[in-house]
Design goal:
three-stranded antiparallel β-sheet, structural molecule activity, Phage_lambda_portal, Phage portal protein
């Protein structure tokens, strides 16, 4: 029976059959050379972080596509700022808190170069280039003249050494510059005192690093894997393609430039005879003939001219560039037209479909990273400092913490259709007016106060506009009273017909 057992169908179950279904785990001829190491992301960041960071910064500075993508990423992520809308019930107290916050934002930067919302844009750029950014909460003295004695200092990723990994006598562990306690909580950051690449900041410092408590440091980064300690540059998946494409473009441009320098080549049978036109002897003895516009030159016997015809880039150059930049855009998670500025093949439908998906991703970063890691922590420390310094009179600072952060508004391709859709949604009760206004990046209470002030000023000055605050606008407006029938028997607007409150 052993001979017939060989022709029997093998069993359908078992570990062997399960392994056969996992094609990605097969080790046959096609995948024999694919043997990636099983390394944790922290090991990869610790070993390759410094070089990856240096290459990323150089790429964003020297490569036009990378620089444009960085600005597009930052402008869409934070725009002109993710702003707070306090949820304090007391209207007067809420107004005082909001006004004090707005005034403090101008003093928030420890370097004095921008405001709090400008710092948000700098953090967004650092996330694209370095994958992370550190913000130190710097308390100030009462005699510094600040409205709230608190400022923010931005530190680049290089300020926290990747190679600093050790076990302290207290039992705490330092991993990639971050100190953890026995249960895995972040307790401190060990920053360099000077940037390792800044040659203008001279002087020996002992010790080289300084310990900053974790309560005073905000580590802003997007965690990709569970347990990730340091951030990865957002541009990392596209770095190799961008670098090689830049080299290819430079080589192609240099080749065309070199070929265009040679107008033609003159051949002759007797080397000692002069060439056509003026002859200038080069340093190596080679004669160069210049051509003037409109020259009619009679060649001597034995001379012949062969004009240069440099090879073109070919018809596949555009297709190659397009496909490569598509892959770069997909690696960056940015729409193609935001990376390249090319909208030749785009239309309204394709642009909107692309932007909807992109803005869904951006919204995830706004709420999960910028708001959660940066804005919430700054708001909480700012409230505590304002109360302790006497800038705010609050009985319970914790009760004033609830706040809603409003991201910048999205500008659509056709805003008229979107506004009409929002109006219909409000009329149907699908959404509220507050949600619609906050989607534009404004606070509904600020808008209401401005509308009320505008209406009072219009009434006081006796002004009349096509649309006044508080009035129904557009062709959907219906007159309060239908006109009576005319003397000739004609009727005005009947039931179901809409008049208009506008006078042309």
């Amino acid at each position: 029976m052993g001979l017939f057992d060989r022709f029997r169908r093998p069993p359908s179950g078992g570990p062997a059959a399960m392994r056969a279904r996992l094609e990605g785990a097969m080790a046959k001829r096609r995948l024999r050379g694919w043997n990636p190491p099983l390394e944790n992301i922290n090991t990869l960041v610790a070993s390759g972080g410094p070089r990856l960071l240096a290459r990323s910064r150089e790429l964003v500075v020297t490569n036009g596509y990378a620089a444009n993508a960085c600005e597009a990423f930052a402008s869409n992520l934070v725009g002109d700022g993710i702003k707070p809308s306090s949820l304090i019930g007391d209207a007067d107290l809420r107004d005082r808190v909001q006004r004090l916050w707005l005034a403090w934002t101008d003093e928030a930067d420890a370097d004095g170069l921008t405001d709090f919302y400008g710092l948000q844009a700098m953090v967004a750029r650092e996330m694209f280039v370095a994958g992370e950014c550190f913000v130190r909460l710097r308390p100030r003295r009462a005699d510094d003249g600040l409205l709230v004695p608190l400022q923010l200092q931005l530190l680049q990723s290089e300020m926290l050494p990747f190679e600093k990994t050790e076990v302290l006598p207290s039992g705490n562990r330092i991993r990639c510059g971050v100190e953890f306690d026995a249960i895995g909580r972040r307790v401190a950051y060990h920053f360099r005192r000077r940037h390792p690449g800044d040659s203008t900041d001279q002087g020996s410092v002992i010790p080289e690093t300084v310990r900053a408590p974790a309560a005073d440091v905000l580590h802003i980064y997007r965690p990709i894997d569970a347990g990730q300690i340091r951030g990865l540059p957002h541009v990392a998946p596209a770095m190799v393609r961008l670098f090689l494409l830049d080299q290819y473009d430079d080589a192609e441009l240099d080749r065309k430039k070199t070929a265009a320098m040679f107008a033609g080549f003159i051949t002759k049978t007797a080397p000692e005879e002069p060439l056509m036109g003026e002859v200038e002897a080069g340093l190596d003895g080679t004669a160069i003939a210049s051509l003037e516009p409109g020259t009619m030159q009679v060649l001597l016997p034995g001379e012949d001219v062969k004009f240069s015809s440099p090879a073109d880039v070919g018809g596949g150059y555009e297709a190659f560039q397009y496909r490569t930049l598509l892959a770069v855009s997909a690696s960056l998670g940015l729409p193609y037209h935001l990376v390249t500025g090319d909208v030749r093949q785009a239309n309204y439908s394709s642009l909107r479909a692309e932007l909807v998906e992109f803005r869904r991703r951006i919204g995830q970063l706004q709420h999960g990273v910028i708001v959660h890691q940066l804005c919430r922590a700054v708001w909480r420390r700012w409230l505590e400092t304002a109360v302790l310094s006497g800038a705010l009179d609050l009985d319970d600072p914790v009760a004033a913490r609830p706040v809603q952060w409003i991201p910048p508004r999205w500008d659509w391709v056709d805003p008229l259709k979107d506004i009409q859709a929002q109006v219909l949604a409000m009329e149907a009760g699908i959404t509220s007016r507050r949600k619609v206004i906050e989607a534009t990046g404004y606070d509904v209470e600020d808008v209401d106060r401005e509308n009320a002030a505008d209406a009072q000023r219009v009434d006081r000055l006796g002004l009349r506009y096509r649309t006044s605050p508080g009035e129904t606008q557009g062709a959907r407006a219906t007159p309060a009273q239908l006109p009576d029938a005319g003397s000739d028997g004609s009727t005005g607007a009947g039931p179901g017909t809409h008049g208009t409150s506008e006078q042309e």
